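Fill in residues.
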């Protein structure tokens, strides 16, 4: 079959399919070496990318910061230390590290306590204060849906992020029609109040949701959980992770015999802080290489958004969402990527107003394929049939293990962008963005899989 006939067959498969035929699509597949177009359908048309948006964020971060970059969180003070007493506050100064205490791993606090004691501090005549002033107080992106705020996948993003900005809420499921009972949270959050409306019902899935805003200690619980199931877990966001970190460090200090006079606090207005402080200890995150891998392989919204916010904060004090949006756009424009028609609201793709074309993603992927950070970039992309969010794509087919790509999924949407290693040694770069299709995302993925097998089979 000729190349032209193969292209027509492939495009027709998607445009005539009852599921994808009337959807909002943008598609481009190119030979990475030659730039030859393998297949194309409205490549300049911008559509919501969902989590494929993370490619713009992580690619820019690797190029701007380098794969070995590490976020710093510092312990600082401005008051004198006299006879073992710090005559004032101890500050935790955050710079958007998304990994502090991830998955509940808080052993690093022991090292912090050790460093404080080694500095000769045995008493703090003040408080442990979370300095969150690198960013403004706009912790939730205004482009996100209100219904998402408070859920674990849409946590607020702060200069100090801790415990993955997530709390596990333990519920007791009772009889059909009864209210579920809130038992506890992990971690424990002081003063948290749950306006609980979760009903137990005859269902076999988790239909419960958490709603709330950053800094607020009230969380509204709605929806349903299976009845008569005993204990049942629900994830929600932490309202103030910086304050929680300050509280945990205060507890560890007191347990270690270091007196702390006042309760932990936090600060979001940099004008309230002493301008000159001494750094007592510097905590460094894992390398950006590792953070970007977590971002893309597991489609971690917190990591993507924290990186996005930090990039903007490097140029505007305090950092704000507009500066982050401009930073991403300006970077890719300087690299020759056609991003003029793109709409960039966030760094993770959760904002429904985000809109990017297949052509833009293909240009980004092409640029990164010759970057000095190529190794870290490729290691961050899930592999078809094997890892991350691509584990079920093309599993058991000739394309298993040959696709390295980022996926994006929301209701009625399934998107992919990345690379295909062809059997003849060529590499193709592609973006397939399909939005507003009827049915489940898994069904759309199956159609895309059939399409990819068709295109690759006819052109290898």
């Amino acid at each position: 079959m000729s190349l032209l006939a193969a292209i027509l067959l492939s495009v027709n498969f998607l445009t005539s399919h009852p599921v994808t035929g009337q959807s909002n699509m943008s598609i481009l597949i190119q030979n990475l070496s030659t730039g030859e177009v393998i297949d194309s359908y409205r490549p300049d048309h911008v559509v919501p990318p969902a989590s494929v948006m993370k490619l713009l964020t992580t690619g820019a971060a690797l190029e701007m910061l380098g794969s070995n970059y590490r976020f710093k969180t510092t312990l600082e003070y401005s008051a004198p230390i006299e006879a073992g007493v710090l005559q004032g506050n101890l500050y935790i100064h955050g710079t958007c590290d998304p990994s502090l205490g991830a998955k509940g791993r808080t052993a690093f606090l022991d090292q912090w306590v050790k460093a404080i004691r080694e500095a000769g501090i045995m008493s703090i005549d003040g408080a442990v204060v979370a300095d969150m002033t690198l960013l403004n107080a706009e912790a939730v992106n205004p482009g996100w849906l209100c219904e998402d705020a408070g859920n674990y996948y849409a946590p607020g993003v702060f200069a100090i992020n801790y415990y993955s900005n997530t709390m596990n809420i333990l519920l007791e499921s009772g009889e059909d029609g009864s209210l579920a009972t809130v038992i506890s949270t992990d971690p424990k959050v002081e003063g948290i109040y749950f306006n609980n409306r979760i009903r137990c019902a005859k269902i076999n899935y988790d239909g419960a949701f958490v709603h709330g805003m950053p800094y607020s200690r009230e969380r509204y619980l709605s929806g349903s959980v299976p009845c008569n199931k005993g204990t049942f877990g629900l994830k929600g966001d932490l309202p103030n992770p910086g304050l929680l970190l300050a509280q945990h460090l205060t507890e560890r200090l007191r347990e270690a015999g270091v007196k702390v006079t006042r309760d932990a606090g936090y600060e979001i207005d940099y004008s309230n802080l002493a301008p000159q402080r001494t750094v007592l200890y510097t905590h460094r995150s894992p390398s950006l290489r590792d953070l970007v891998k977590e971002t893309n392989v597991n489609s971690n919204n917190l990591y993507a958004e924290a990186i996005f916010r930090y990039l903007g904060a490097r140029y505007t004090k305090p950092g704000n969402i507009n500066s982050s949006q401009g930073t991403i756009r300006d970077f890719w424009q300087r690299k020759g990527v056609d991003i003029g028609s793109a709409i960039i609201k966030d760094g993770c793709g959760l904002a429904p107003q985000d809109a990017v074309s297949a052509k833009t993603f293909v240009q980004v992927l092409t640029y990164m394929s010759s970057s000095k950070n190529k190794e870290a970039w490729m290691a961050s992309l899930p592999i078809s049939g094997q890892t991350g969010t691509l584990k079920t794509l093309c599993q058991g087919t000739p394309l298993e293990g040959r696709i390295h790509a980022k996926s994006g999924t929301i209701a009625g949407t399934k998107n992919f962008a990345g690379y295909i290693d062809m059997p003849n040694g060529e590499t193709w770069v592609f973006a397939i963005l399909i939005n507003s299709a009827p049915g489940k995302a898994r069904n759309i993925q199956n159609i895309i899989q059939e399409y990819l097998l068709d295109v690759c089979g006819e052109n290898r």
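The chain is about 25% helix and 25% strand.
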